[in-house]
Amino acid sequence: MRRVKAIVRGRVQGVGYRASTVATARQYGLTGWVRNLPDGSVELEAQGAEVRVTELLAWCAHGPPAARVTGVTVDDRLPVTGEHGFVQRR
């Protein structure tokens, strides 16, 4: 089990990045959340099997077709118990 916090920079707001992240994370069976930050970046926390978290992070490096990702910063976190699903926060 692995949990990460990631900050994704570039053109990642207004291009469907959050909705695509939710769909991808759910496809991988992950829990967590994603949200826009005031500086134009996107923040997410994802938890699940290490291989699936790694796959999501690889996806985050390019995102949906309209996104232009310039960087992803990742920090490991302690797993959260009792979390269900992957959601979009405001």
Q: If you had to describe this structure to a student in words, what would you say it looks like?
A:
The protein has a single domain, classed as 2-Layer Sandwich (Alpha-Beta Plaits). 24% of the residues lie in helices and 40% in strands. It is built from two helices and five strands, in the order βαββαββ. The chain has a five-stranded mixed beta sheet, with helices on one face. A hairpin with a 5-residue loop joins β2 and β3. The model has no long low-confidence stretch (mean pLDDT 97).
Q: Any low-confidence stretches, pLDDT <50, length ≥5?
A: none
Alpha-beta classification: alpha+beta
Q: In what range is the share of β-strand residues?
A: 35-45%
Radius of gyration in whole Å, from Cα? 12 Å
CATH class: Alpha Beta
Residues in helices, as a percent range: 10-25%
Write down how many β-strands occur, each being a DSSP E stretch of 2 or more residues.
Answer: 5
Q: How does CATH name the architecture?
A: 2-Layer Sandwich
Strand order of the largest sheet: 4-1-3-2-5
Task: Determine the mean pLDDT.
Answer: 97
Provide the CATH topology. Alpha-Beta Plaits
Distance between the termini: 26 Å
The tally of domains stands at 1
Q: How would you summarize this macromolecular structure in one to three sentences?
A:
The chain has about 90 residues and is of the alpha+beta class.
Layout of helices and strands:
Blueprint: E1 2-11, H1 17-27, E2 31-36, E3 42-48, H2 50-60, E4 68-77, E5 86-88
Parallel strand pairs: 2-5
Antiparallel strand pairs: 1-3, 1-4, 2-3
